[in-house]
């Protein structure tokens, strides 16, 4: 191995959320890291220390790595592969239209370095891949002198750096225990439980974790619907449930549904993997179905409140055709969660699209979506016809109903009494249950949350 300042030389292929965080954090841990990406503009931007994504503390670590000469960015992974001890594959593995996971980017990345790898190097898959992919990677690599390992990522957007440097666990899968230990040594300065297993189990851990989180959120959203039906208060119910140490309070919060770039893809992929293996994963299919229903429930609430109704009298309208002609809806939040500028798989976007299709005029605000001159890719992901405002107060001005879809703290801090005076009708659907119902009603709002009395 090449010893560099008590670290190792690592090649990270892919400079997206996972790849860039992996590269910057390994450099922070003292390794010499080269991050390769085929996007020339991105490589140029990153080489100048400019991070094109919103991620807490990431730009600081990138700048630190460049300044200490532990991190650099290149376009050709092949040109530097021969100098590296470890190659981490961190490229996208999206879901195809047919429900299968797209592995062509992963295989292309592998092919770009395969012939240039030094003997004894370790290729590590960090991209999320279907269970059973490891043997395919080995066959595609076609080299017995290069080792293979799986090291799934558990990074939450908005806190990816913290999750890398202070993780709940580090999972490494390899058929050769010595190889797993070599990969584990890269994390020597990280204090976290280490789980060494076979590659198939490591791949399954990633899917299982995301599927369980999705199931927890779907359960809470379904429970909120039950609370509405029986006139219970979901906040009190969840406080009582969350104090049970066997359950815990994490992810016990109603919302417009789960989304993002991982949970939708990984839940469907696990259903597909199970089906291919002969098991019908009814439970997880139900989790996905409940999530789709939740989107319709939120949309139905917005229509009901916009027309002056409250309570559960319109629950039967879930999934029905909307009639929102002439209604202006202020959409507060578009990213799939607070702390990120990622719109991929956002339930907020999906709710907005359904409202638009029902005839509503959409005016939106999200604190992460400024500077479209630098990020035209974000604007392209917004629903057609949506008007983006510069502030939440501007977004609600003249609207008939506001809907909170992302839990940005700016919405909790908004002067809602003033907002009520700016709106055509002071009506709001709090799809994150982040606002105080009593204060909103005192300000003159017709208020409805999820599962709240």
In short:
The protein is α/β, with parallel strands linked by helices. It contains 18 helices and 14 strands.
Explain this structure to me?
- The chain is an alpha/beta fold and 453 residues long.
- The chain has two domains: 9-197, NAD(P)-binding Rossmann-like Domain (Rossmann fold, 3-Layer(aba) Sandwich); 198-453, NAD(P)-binding Rossmann-like Domain (Rossmann fold, 3-Layer(aba) Sandwich), CATH 3.40.50.
- Helices cover 41% and strands 13% of the residues.
- The protein contains 18 helices and 14 strands.
- The protein has helices spanning 17-28, 40-47, 58-67, 78-81, 104-114, 134-141, 160-165, 177-185, 199-230, 234-242, 263-276, 282-306, 347-357, 376-379, 392-396, 409-412, 416-422, 437-442; strands spanning 9-13, 32-36, 71-74, 86-89, 122-125, 147-150, 170-173, 194-197, 328-332, 361-365, 387-388, 401-404, 427-430, 446-448.
- The strands form three sheets. It has a six-stranded parallel β-sheet with strand order 3-2-1-4-5-6, with helices on both faces. It has a six-stranded parallel β-sheet with strand order 11-10-9-12-13-14.
- Helix 1 (17-28) packs across helix 3 (58-67), helix 9 (199-230) packs parallel to helix 12 and helix 12 packs across helix 13 (347-357).
- The longest helix has 32 residues, at 199-230.
- Mean pLDDT is 93; it is low at 1-5 and 312-317.
